[in-house]
Amino acid sequence: MINHISEIDASYSPMINSNHFNNDNRSNHGPFVDDIIFEILHFLDSLFIIQICMKISKQWRQVSFQIPLSLSFQQNLLKQVSESIKLLANCEYLKNLTCLNLGGNEIGNEGVKYIANSERLKNLTSLDLRYNEIDNEGVTYIANSKCLKNLTCLNLKHNRIGSEGVKYIANSEWLKNLIYLNLSFNEIGSEGVKYIANSECLKNLISLNLLLSRIGNEGVIYIANSECLKNLTYLKLVKNRIGYEGVKFIAKSIYMNNLTNLNLGFNEINKECVECIASSECLKNLTSLELKGNEIGNESVKYIANSECLKNLTHLSLKHNRIGSEGVRYIANSECLTNLTSLDLYYNEINNEGVKYIVNSECLKNLISLDLSCNRIDHEGIDYISNNAWFKNLISLELQGNPRVDNNNWLNLNGFF
């Protein structure tokens, strides 16, 4: 994290004294050959390379330019110095910068314009512009930028982008290399999703994040029917008021069969939705399924536990779903969930009996991460855990927020890990 723009000395004045370049013999016959310097630089932070290594000699500077650099600026830094973003965009020492994080700096459309027009930043592959007050105008600068044609990752989370801005991205010849796109917390609506789904320019996407984007069932249907999005492996659609109609299309879509990670948290997922997912031949490659915040209850868990189509799951999140010990029993006895390594049951209605099902389960022995926070577990449940030998395989165990788990109970877990 960079604390001040001066740390990279982003000005037009040379960082390196000209005397370093007048003695070619010194550069060519230094104590290290180029290959050694190259290996050394791989162990150093990008900022250190810019501040120190580029100033050592011409040889070090030239080799430094072969190292991909990554910079992340402290939130709210650049808006405090009006010229900072302009200086950054014109800094000759950033020509090998591949990853740039400007999140939370409120650079606005004008700041985006400098970045998009910068010849110095044309090697960027990852650009993070979250929380920057960017609207549709700012998106046009990105979409029309030849300098940003190497981008593979673009994060525009929490800006002011609407469907028109998405249209610019979807039609951009310069953004064809994108594989990761985050448009969460923007009001793109179903119309914006339609542009993405029909885009020949975005057919290389493997990760799409549309959390809280107001897409609804209509937007999901566009995604599910999109041949252009058939390469997606990660799809996050949290808080979009998606119900049975949308889930049904995802579950039956031949274009979604490459999905490995599906997040439908905090939607309108009911028992019928869960049954659709659990019986889907098109979703059998899922390794991660998140249904948190849908209040699906115990009976819905049975569909997941009995699903041959979900047997590849390694991560399952059912937090905040009103699941009790009966639902836990289905999971614990499931021969279809034996590959689970991570199970998140935070904020449910699980008591000591539910804990007992988990610790006695032959099917959950591959778990390395378990979250039982904010349930109804007391000292008895803690004893079940602490006295179980195979539970010591856990790397992460969360139990905080259980009303009767006090400091004395935690003492029983001393030395557990």
Automatic annotation (TrEMBL):
One of its GO terms (biological process) is nucleocytoplasmic transport. This is Uncharacterized protein. Keywords: GTPase activation, Leucine-rich repeat, Repeat. It comes from Naegleria lovaniensis (Amoeba). Gene3D superfamilies: Ribonuclease Inhibitor. Transmembrane segments: none annotated. GO terms for molecular function: GTPase activator activity; small GTPase binding. It comes from the Eukaryota. Pfam families: LRR_6 (PF13516). The lineage of its organism: Eukaryota, Discoba, Heterolobosea, Tetramitia, Eutetramitia. GO terms for cellular component: cytosol; nucleus; perinuclear region of cytoplasm.
